[in-house]
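Here is one chain, start to finish.
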Amino acid sequence: MIVGASIAGLTAAAAVADQFDEVVVLERDRLPDAPAPRRGVPQGDHGHVLLISGARALEELFPGLAADLRAAGAVALADLGTDMTFFRYGVRYRPMPLHLPLQSFTRPLLETVIRGRVGGLPAVHIRDGVTVAGLAGDRHTVTGVRVDGDVLDADLVVDASGRGSRSDRWLADLGHRAPDAVEVKIGVHYTTRLFTRTEGDFTDGRCVLVLPAPKTERRVGLAFPVEGDRWLISMGGWHNAGAPQSAEEFRAYARSLPYQPLSALVERAEPLTELVTHRFPASRRRHFERLRHPPAGYVAVGDAVCSFNPVYGQGMTCAALEALALRSTVERHGTGSARLPAAFARTVGRIVATPWRFATGGDFAFPETTGPRPPGIDWLNKYTEKIQLAAQTSVPVRRAFIDVQQLLAPPSVLFRPAMVAHVLRTAKRNGAVVAPAG
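Its structure:
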């Protein structure tokens, strides 16, 4: 039984479809037939990035998915190093081949294509308009879920109900304490609008991401090409950086960024939709791996475990990696094993550890960020700034940083002695050119 037809829920269903006679996905929303934002995904109107490791995980779960997305209109970007324009510390990073292709699309398109693949699996049944009220069972074993006064029996319940998961209350009702949780308050607030996209209206790469220098700036801007010959353009930032609320404010916000080609694109392109805003007050992580005796028959995935700052684009990738881990854990322990939940929770803890450190570390570069500070974070952020400066021109540093950011390599590659020496030498040569505060 999968609670939630999110990316996490759909990938989990696909991962275990061969291990159970029947897999039922229960979704509270009414699911649209065509790609469209829905209430249960409040950030669905906004930009989503599938990291390269996530794209590879999805391709393993759904062979041919990349081709399906292209057929549905997703935009192919030949190389992250040349097609993605990065601007930070007052500098447009030098284009360089990294041989890392990726695709750009809206979240609703990805979800619709995946849902079509999952719905076509013989063992899977997707039921929408269904609200799960709680878990059935006792302190030792979850035996199903409660829906409209009835109990739907299940050998395994996968909680993929997202950031708003009621797992704390559900587990408490069975006599368990809630998993330890931590929050890092970041006050991210951004506004998105879709625009027409025509050939030649942006010539500096295929898409752009403008990030702030944390000591003096808070604002971010991005433009991604998406299906339907459209631009998805967002303006926002950390710690309530004044996300725009009107068309004129949106244009003014773009002009306030230190990278003028993005504001020129906003001025030139024709709006297709109204402005949509989203607030993300805090990143949140629940440590299910710390539960000493989790009940058999219940696991959590996706945002129900860890909800990241969306600016870093890690959530969907972690969900896909967790789905693969769920498949292997079920195969190793069996569908009814009492050891499965703890083993899976430990694996999920390892999956989210690096992106959590990456995201919260970046967020603590802003002095307004509050929450449990990781040990040594100030030193680490100083070194990370030097990595960013060196990555402006150095192919080895850019490739190593992107590999870590894309969850293709462990962070340790950035701390090898030869790499550290190269980073410090190149960063000193490039220097810090920080734009005025936004």
